[in-house]
Every structure is written in structure tokens, then in C-alpha cells.
Design goal:
Blueprint lengths: L1 H20 L22 H13 L5 H5 L14 E8 L4 E8 L4 E6 L7 H9 L5 E2 L7 E2 L1 H8 L2 H16 L4 E7 L1 H15 L6 E6 L7 H10 L3 E6 L25 E9 L2 E8 L18 H4 L1 E2 L2 E2 L4 H4 L19
Parallel strand pairs: 3-6, 6-7, 7-8, 8-9
Antiparallel strand pairs: 1-2, 2-3, 4-5, 9-10, 11-12
Length: 334
């Protein structure tokens, strides 16, 4: 029995070494070539902080958010100073903007979808075609619903106003944009908007379990504009696999931008080892999340042990009108 345990530990050590050493990469081909060079700005300590902001924005109690006393506001983000809370009731969207003194940054966090059924939302994404030309960029196509959720609602104006107001008082702060799921999609469009249309510099993006939002022409433009971007994926999370990627379709298929960091586990007997792989610069590294099936809602709702959704007991409460508190349908079809 003792020898078996030693063998198991040895096998685990071998697996760890192999994972650390072997990091295959590919080079994209075509008119908009995406190089697989890794220039990742990934910082795990920063990611652990940002995932708490991505979780806190799901809180539906406005008072506890504005006072930063919510149940998800007491960890690594406890000293955060919120400046603006944005609640877009018509389209069921929420975001906040504030200052993290430890990070020396303006934090912008977008809430993900509030669908009661993540499975139904994911199935809707599976069949969504590229249906909007991204303004000013040749051949760039994006998902109309994700684009509109940021650009065609009150979110954009209020986020920009909050950032500019903070910068008038503080000129020493960078900008970090985050979000989970659909919130990650909006975070990406926001960072690109602030860079391309408002001349903002020093913008970082860290998202969790975000879907694809455009084709490879858009991905190339995005990576050139916002290179300090990290897309964190987890295990078999279904959402990063959506809408689907079909290499054979060229510009007519969705294509992730870099840099992905994939969190995954390997089991050796009864032991489980968790790893983080910094993927190549193609955005579609076949050795990362694309190497497994995207079939897990559970992996989508948990990153670094942090829960990323409105609490189920809150979703179940009824307000005076009979509408489910904290639940509404986020329309990504227009």
C-alpha cells in the first residue's frame, strides 16, 4: 500500500512536469493572420482580485453595493470605493465603476446574463451568426446582441462619464475592465471603445468565461488595440465554446482573441492537481479549452472557487408585483 502511494505521487510529479514543459502552439492562416506568440500580461494575484469584482456585480441589493458592504464585498476588494452603480432595468444590465487604491486603477465591472436557465441561454448562443459589421474596421464582424448591450444602452454613456469624472480628480490611475460570461463580452467592447474612441491608455482587461464576440478580423483589431487582455477559462465551461468556431469558414466564423489562460484539473488516482496554462497568441489555442468538450455549466459558474451568479435564493424571491427579484431576460438577439 505504501509503495502504491509512492508510485501515485511519482506519477503526479511526472504529470506536473509534462504539463509545465509541453506547451504546443499554432499559427493562424489567412488574410487576417493571428500569430501564436505569447505576450500574456497574466498576473494570478490580480486575477484573484478581479474575479471578486466580477462576482460582486451580480448582487441585486443596490444599497449594499453602493455602501460596499455586500456579502461579496468583504474579501480582497474590501477597500474598494464605488463611484457609480449603473442599473439598466429595460435590458436587465448592471455595472459599476470605482477605484481600487491597491491596484492603482479604475475598476469597471459588468454583470453577466441573468437568465434563470443558463442551459437555454447557451443553446441560443450556439445558433447565433455574425450579424453586424464592426464600425470602421474592414471585414470585422461581431455579435449584434453583445455589441448592442454595451453600445446601444445607457451603459456606455454612464461608464464613460464615470471614468472621465474620476480621471478629472485622479490622473494617476490605470483602467481595468472585467466581467463574467456576457459581462465579459461587454467588458471587451467597453475596453475597445475607451481605447479606440476616447483615447484612453493603460487599459487592462480580465474576463472570466466569456463567449466569442467576433470573427478573426475583429480579433486582430482588438488585440492590436487592447493587448493587455486576459480571457480566463475553466475546465469544460460551455460558454467560451460559444458561438462555435469553425476554422474552415474563415471570416464567417467566430474567433476568440488572445490571451487565454485555461484553468484545468488532472486526476491521478484519488488525487487532483489543478493547473493554469497560459495559451498561445492565436486566441484559439487547440491545447487549451478547445482541447476539451464545452459541456459544463458548473465550471462556468465557478472560477478560482468564487461563485459567479446571482444567488439562487435571491432569484427565488418574489417582489410585490410578482416578478422574480434579480431575474430578468437579457436579450442578446438585437
Amino acid at each position: 500500500m505504501e509503495n502504491a502511494g509512492r508510485i501515485q505521487i511519482l506519477l503526479g510529479a511526472i504529470v506536473i512536469l509534462l504539463v509545465l514543459v509541453i506547451t504546443p502552439a499554432i499559427i493562424g492562416k489567412g488574410k487576417h493572420e493571428i500569430q501564436a506568440i505569447n505576450i500574456s500580461p497574466y498576473n494570478r494575484t490580480k486575477a484573484l482580485i478581479l474575479v471578486e469584482y466580477a462576482s460582486a456585480v451580480y448582487i441585486v441589493d443596490d444599497t449594499s453595493l453602493l455602501s460596499w458592504t455586500c456579502s461579496r464585498c468583504q474579501g480582497l476588494t474590501k477597500d474598494f470605493k464605488i463611484h457609480t452603480l449603473i442599473v439598466e432595468v429595460q435590458h436587465c444590465l448592471q455595472a459599476f465603476v470605482g477605484v481600487d487604491e491597491d491596484l492603482k486603477a479604475i475598476i469597471i465591472s459588468f454583470r453577466g446574463t441573468q437568465e434563470s436557465s443558463m442551459q437555454n441561454w447557451a443553446e441560443d448562443l450556439y445558433f447565433k451568426e455574425l450579424d453586424l459589421n464592426y464600425p470602421g474596421v474592414t471585414d470585422a464582424m461581431v455579435h449584434r446582441g453583445f455589441y448592442a448591450a454595451y453600445h446601444n444602452t445607457t451603459l456606455r454613456e454612464q461608464v464613460v462619464n464615470a471614468v472621465q469624472a474620476i480621471q478629472q480628480a485622479r490622473g494617476d490611475l490605470g483602467i481595468i475592465v472585467t466581467g463574467h460570461s456576457m459581462g465579459g463580452a461587454m467588458a471587451s467592447f467597453c475596453a475597445l471603445d475607451l481605447t479606440a474612441n476616447y483615447g484612453q491608455k493603460s487599459i487592462e482587461v480580465i474576463t472570466f468565461g466569456q463567449p466569442r464576440i467576433g470573427n478573426s478580423a475583429f480579433a486582430t483589431f482588438y488585440m492590436d488595440s487592447v493587448p493587455a487582455t486576459v480571457r480566463i477559462t475553466h475546465g469544460h465551461d460551455v460558454v467560451p465554446h460559444l458561438p462555435p468556431y469553425y476554422a474552415i469558414l474563415g471570416q464567417k466564423t467566430y474567433h476568440h482573441f488572445a490571451t487565454e489562460v485555461w484553468i484545468f484539473k488532472i486526476a491521478i488516482g484519488r488525487l487532483q492537481y489543478e493547473f493554469e496554462r497560459i495559451c498561445d497568441g492565436s486566441g484559439e489555442d487547440p491545447s487549451c479549452s478547445r482541447s476539451v468538450s464545452g459541456n459544463s455549466i458548473q465550471d462556468h459558474l465557478n472560477y478560482y472557487g468564487v461563485y459567479l451568479r446571482t444567488e439562487d435564493n435571491v432569484l427565488a424571491l418574489l417582489n410585490g408585483t410578482g416578478q422574480i427579484l434579480g431575474h430578468c431576460k437579457t436579450d442578446v438577439s438585437s
